[in-house]
Specification:
338 residues; mainly alpha
Length: 338
């Protein structure tokens, strides 16, 4: 199928899937279910497996992820030559797999951990486990040959995250300008928000200095400044005290802050901030999905919306497993004020 034909088919197919997905106003339905069995039926519309509740929660998460990835692979495969951004987005899960593999090796496990299957788009040879060098040979992860010390595992995880972000950004730059602009906007907002939430967590929970935080930010440039497209916004908030409502209220993230009730004990809530920013980014993806039909923006925004849906499914399943009330699950997910 030529590109124009593939783009038209993908747009129609992707639109149909989104119409049936739990995005936009339909997301709340996930948090209104009363049991894991009801949640399963809502998502899959098939007979509920005869397994214990604790196993059903995990099975819902696993099956939802498999369904999402299969749908995405089917859409990408409509193109004889998919745009690089399509495949690198999917390989987010290969980067995640690599970190899980290394974590398993650090703890001395001989059995391959549970991994996400991305089919023909995978490059790591998992059959060579536990030989890390052979697993990553002739891949973009060929630098990963040695198992890090257990005390340096967190430092190791930063490298694949940074590599992924830079690969995503490089892939976006290969798009025609007319298609690049909307894709760049949605990806920039998503990654910038991740950095900002990371700044708050590191300052609040780990008491990191600004210089220590800058070294852990995802960025495009080696020495990021406020002009870096991914790290710039995070650098701008580095000097904001986490307990200053007045300062944060003046930032561009004022609409994502936990409420100020006049208490001197107010502190930026990183979970609230993250959830609010994720909802904001999802709303942008939903809005722009139909604004640029037959372009790369369709699959990029589709992917981001379905990732958000998957996060919500996990939250709903875990809440039900722990017997948390519907109202509390909504609060945890950021769909109801605390």
């Amino acid at each position: 199928m030529d590109k124009s034909g593939a783009s038209a088919y993908v747009y129609a197919k992707a639109s149909g899937i989104i119409a049936r997905s739990f995005v936009g106003n339909r997301t709340i339905k996930l948090f209104e279910t009363k049991s894991l069995s009801e949640l399963w039926s809502l998502i899959f519309n098939t007979e509920v497996p005869m397994v214990p509740e604790i196993m059903l929660a995990k099975q819902i998460e696993v099956e939802a992820q498999k369904k999402f990835i299969k749908q995405y692979i089917d859409l990408v495969s409509c193109y004889s030559k998919p745009e690089p951004i399509f495949t690198i987005l999917l390989r987010f899960y290969e980067y995640s797999n690599l970190k899980d593999v290394v974590s398993s090796l650090v703890t001395g496990k001989n059995q391959l951990p549970s991994l996400v299957d991305i089919g023909k788009f995978a490059t790591i040879d998992y059959s060579k486990y536990p030989d890390l060098a052979k697993m990553t040979e002739n891949t973009e992860f060929s630098w990963c040959t040695e198992i890090p010390d257990v005390h340096k595992e967190k430092d190791f995880e930063y490298k694949p995250d940074l590599q992924y972000v830079r690969c995503v950004w490089a892939a976006i730059q290969k798009l025609p300008k007319s298609e690049r602009i909307p894709v760049e906007k949605i990806i920039k907002q998503s990654l910038s928000q991740r950095n900002v939430a990371w700044v708050v967590r590191l300052k609040l929970y780990y008491k990191y200095t600004n210089e220590q935080i800058k070294k852990r930010l995802l960025s495009i440039s080696e020495n990021p400044t406020v002009n870096d497209p991914i790290a710039g916004d995070a650098i701008k908030v580095l000097d904001l005290p986490v307990d200053s409502w007045a300062d944060w209220k003046q930032s561009v993230y004022s609409d994502c802050l936990n409420p100020y009730l006049g208490s001197d004990d107010w502190t930026v809530d990183p979970r609230w901030l993250q959830q609010a920013m994720s909802k904001k980014n999802n709303a942008l993806a939903l809005k722009t999905f139909r604004q640029y039909p037959f372009t790369a923006n369709v699959l990029v925004t589709w992917f981001k919306m379905k990732q958000f849906e998957l996060d919500c499914i996990r939250t709903a399943a875990e809440g039900l497993r722990l017997n948390v009330s519907s109202s509390e699950i909504k609060k945890i997910a950021g769909f109801e004020q605390l």
